[in-house]
Amino acid sequence: MSDTDEEQRKPKPQSSSTTYMSEGSQLCRKGKYKMATESYSKALDQKPDDKLCLVLRSKCFLMRGDYNNALTDAEASLKEDKMYHKGLYQKAEALYMLGDFEFALVFYHRGNKLRPDLQHFRLGIQKAEKAIDNTLGSRSAVKLEKHPMKQQNHKSGKSEKITKQLLGPFYTDKKYLECLLKDEGKKNPKCGETMQDLIQDCVTYIDTWTDFWHKEKPIYARESARKLTHQKKSQSCQTMSPDLAQFLFKSLEEIDAALMSGNAGSGLKKAQTLMKTVKSWSKEALPKKKEVLGSLHCCMAKAWITLGDMDKALVHYQKDLNLAKECKLPDAKSRALHNIGALYVQTGNFTQAVEVWEESIPLVRDDTERTWLFHEIGRCYLDLQRDKEARDYGRRSLAAAEEIEDEKWVLNANVLVAQAESNLGNFESCVSHFERALEQAKMVQDAYAVDAIEKAIYKAGQHLTQ
Question: pLDDT tens digits, residue range 355-381?
Answer without folding.
Answer: 999 999 999 888 888 999 999 999 999
